[in-house]
Amino acid sequence: MSSVCDNLERFVDGEMLPADAENFRHHLARCAACESRMKELLALELLSDDALNSPGPERLGATSRWRNKSWLMVVPLALAAGLAALVLVPQTQPTDAAPELWLAEAATRPLEVRLTHPGADGHRPYQVMRSGTGARPQALALRELARLEEAADHRGIASAFLLRGDLAQASAFLDKLPASADLDTDRAALALQQDEPEKALVLLERALKRKPRHAQALWNQALALQRLGLSLRAAESFEQVAQLGERGWSDEAAQRAQALRNAAEQERKDWKGMRQDCQRMVDGGAPLSTAQAETLPGMARVCLYNALRAAASPERVESLHPLAVVLDRKEDGTHLEDALRRTARRDFSARTPLASEYARLTRGEVKGAALESFLSRLREARQEDLLLGALAYADPRQFPDEYRALALETKDPWFALLAEERQARADALADAPQRARERLQAAVKTCTASGRQLYRCMLMQRELGLVMARLHRPVDARARFVGALRAARDSREWGSQRNLLQDLGQVARTQGDLVLARAYVEELLLQTPEGCADSEVALTSLALAHHRALDVAGARELLDRAIQCSQKPSMARLALLADLARTPFRKPEDARLLEQGLGALRDSGTQDAGDLALLRHIEGRFYLEQDAHRGQALLRQALADTTKLPAANVSARKARVYSYTSLIFDAGRTGELAQGLALFSEEHAMPAPERCVLGVTVDDERTFVVARDAEGRLLGHHDTGRTAPLEGVEGLVPGAVVKALRACPSVDILARPPVQGRAGLLPSDIAWSYRVGGLPNTPPSQAKAQRLIVTDVLAPASLHLPTLRAWNPASDTGEGRTLLRGAEATPPRVLAAMRDATEVQVHAHGIIDPSVADASVLVLSPEATGGRFALTTGDLKGQRLRGRPVVLLAACYAGHTSAYLHENFGLPLAFIESGARAVLAATQEIPDDEAHAFFEPVLARIREGVPATVALRDERQAWLRRHASSWVQQVLLFE
């Protein structure tokens, strides 16, 4: 037993601080000695409880002492290890458990979610205290728990803990259950209690595929959708529960569904009605009511500015005064009243005709040359407020300085924020999204800190999300869209909610979260029952989501519905037409539709050079299936176009990767194996290897594998039989190819997204690595090695991460070594220290946190100011590691990558792109007490000159012969 084990009795007696107890719990899960001693202590406690089995103060005291122990939170760990064998109770069926185990005798139920265990699913009204505290749930009866454990009713035990809010222990017992619709439903209930509705939705989708009329799954699905703000989809799920006819549950489900529909319809009706009243006010009709201004103050303010500009007389201006007072009061200012006073002093003999034309502008009747003429006349007439309003209808790239000057001259914060938003949009259109991001981040921070201008702040949040999506940062984009959607819901801005549902659906599809993508887009379709025009974009997005899920028939059906809307086609719709060209669902008219769409987009003048390259790729991909020569020529032209564009252009990057995808699969389909392997190498900017190389790519239903063995012989495999999106890569490479590669000293793998960076592509007894880029993997010539070691990191307490073992190998002399440990190991200091290092070791926690970054992050010590602790892929962007180091990321999940359609993101790839010659990282958890023992010999052999692939393979095989733990099979090498 280690010195840590000395704390077991203190832990059992509940004498440790909560943070220390949490750390000890992690130790207990891995320490066999502590687990054994824990059983003994627990058995003694139970025997003591039996000895005091007579009523009276002594009995009550013993029971109270037992139930108040803080370590009771880990009793299930001992139960799982065989506590039931130590408790001599007769075996009973789980339904014989006392009702109090399920809190079944209470008048109301404690959870809104439903659980699948019969004892825990009786209907009672759901009620929570407004204080958020409520009555404390009845303590668990240990003897009843023991009976459930002896009967192996792990679902019952999990339900009992879940009812009492002990989510960690509920999860531990759910882990013991076999896969089923019930398990997915209970896990979804747990996720909802943890405020993770997205995770719950995925689990419930799987449960309902297994059992479509699963009552608890349908109920929990409705709750998940409701918490995501998808009211009409939630109502549909509740209505499905209502149709099942369950006592109590069906009535409550019907009531909930009707309430959701009523609220959604009222919100839609209020917003659309106010929009109509707004235009009537601009055209000279009655001002908006006080109630309307209170309900939708953002839209009311937009309407008032336009009505003021369109006012034809001082009397009309004065009629708007009550509305201005109400809206000014909401922002605690007088900006609108000041604007009314300025306007009332204008010369209306000159202003009235211009005001009338401004009203026509708001109705969409003044465009193109007429708008330019109107702007000129406004300048000549010196009607600055009208000019400011009219400029908003022009391209934001036009007259940016003029607009900003006019906006700031008003002294109104509304227009100051609007100027930033408009300039950011102009930056994004001018292919400067980074500048747009910085501008919007500063503006959003300003308006968020002020607590005012919530409508403008919400719109800027959305604009920032669009910029993040353009920069292909879907995690950041989604966070902005979610924040904006929350603000739009709170302010009942139905129109903005619809836009944001579309945005969130597209981001979810980009991230491969097809369940969430469909949920958002289906909600959008339910909210737009008026007709085709409002549904075209949503239908196209939903069609793409179905295609990503390899539901080609569903994708075709939705695409045809979108086409019938007769709207100008989007690039996404054309891309889907190109994908369908290789399926039985292509149609004769698709070529005409594609040509019409390409022409419309090219003539629109809104496409930058990257977009045009992407359009050429779509054209080539489509014709590759009918006319190979024409298709190949178009794809080669698209590749040539991308070479002239900066790497920051996302559309150009997509055009490049997608064009290689089409060319590589065309070679695989026609059996041109040498050409296929040459294309892999060309894409990686490296000469085609003559032996011991493997190329692997996956695209929707297609797989292509090509290799050269140790003798240089070509082998290949091509198929189109995948029926579900790729999950794991084990078995992706055919056995014949694996057998041929075994004679290789090591294998370079040229893998493309989404295969790249996944563990298990080749067996662990073969020396192999992912080859990234075309630079040689030799170290730079220099006189002295420089090693950087990052260790003893002080992770933020808020992350609740256990302390890692101190780094102190006895064999390390410290020569040529830089050590950053403790508070020194902050992200900026680590980045600075690694620039000239030839070897970098990071011993820290790794976490996958979608709220922080697209891939895994390294948890370092927080900075003194700002508290920044995470080292992300973004931090490495632009860094130059001049020492071309070998990098060891001895952190859990550090090898995890996020795969998108055109590229992968991950720490190993970021290190390679920054100059590292090799990166070692694991895709899963690393046991703290085993990390040094495994990685030190690997690094030592690499220092001796052994190829990294061979060093990793040999040490891994030696480890597996000596140890039972197999985590080393998840360690990957990138070169």
From TrEMBL:
TM regions (residue ranges): 71-89
Organism of provenance: Myxococcus xanthus
Protein name, entry field: CHAT domain-containing protein
SUPFAM superfamilies assigned to the protein according to its UniProt record, in alphabetical order: TPR-like
Domain CHAT: 813-963
Record-annotated Putative zinc-finger domain positions: 5-34
Keyword Transmembrane among UniProt keywords: yes
Entry keyword set: Membrane, Transmembrane, Transmembrane helix
